[in-house]
Amino acid sequence: MEASENEPTNYFDQSIMDYKQGSSRVQKHLPNVVQGYFNFTEACFKEGTISQKHKQLTALGISIFAQDEYCIMYHAKGAVEHGATEDELMETIAVCAALGGGAAFSQGVTLALDTFDFYRETNH
Q1: Residue-wise pLDDT tens digits, 72-96
Q2: CA-CA distances (angstroms) from residue 109 to 89, 101, 113?
Q3: Rounded-to-integer distance, Cα 64 and Cα 93, Å
Q4: What secondary structure does DSSP assign to the chain, as a single string?
Q5: How far apart are CA 79 and CA 54, in angstroms?
């Protein structure tokens, strides 16, 4: 079976699509709850006193600490899209490891770095 143009061809895009599909499924049953959540998070990530890049890095750090793999991928991608550098990502991982120990370090040096590298190299 050939992949269509709109189908993801990599683990990262597929995982983000899985999240979006699951969200759409829940939204059919609880439209006000899901839309309220989306409106809230959209407002939180708007440019403000803190830049969108730094908000993405903060969210990435929290995601690494919480070991939330979908959010790690989503916010690593968001960090790339908002101009985060590799050095900024490394410092984010270091702060997470300082607070979250080996579990946070392992998520940072694997999934977060892999996702960051993928989206940086593919210019998504």
Answers
A1: 999 999 999 999 999 999 999 999 9
A2: 10, 12, 6
A3: 8
A4: -PPPTTS--SHHHHHHHHHHHHHHHHHHH-HHHHHHHHHHHHHHTSSSSS-HHHHHHHHHHHHHHHT-HHHHHHHHHHHHHTT--HHHHHHHHHHHHHHHHHHHHHHIIIIIHHHHHHHHHHT-
A5: 8
pTM attached to this predicted model: 0.86
Provide the token pair at 96: 């997470």
Dihedral (Cα; 105, 63, 83, 115), 10-degree rounding: 70
Q: Please tell me the distance from the alpha carbon of residue 95 to that of residue 45, in angstroms, as a whole number.
A: 21
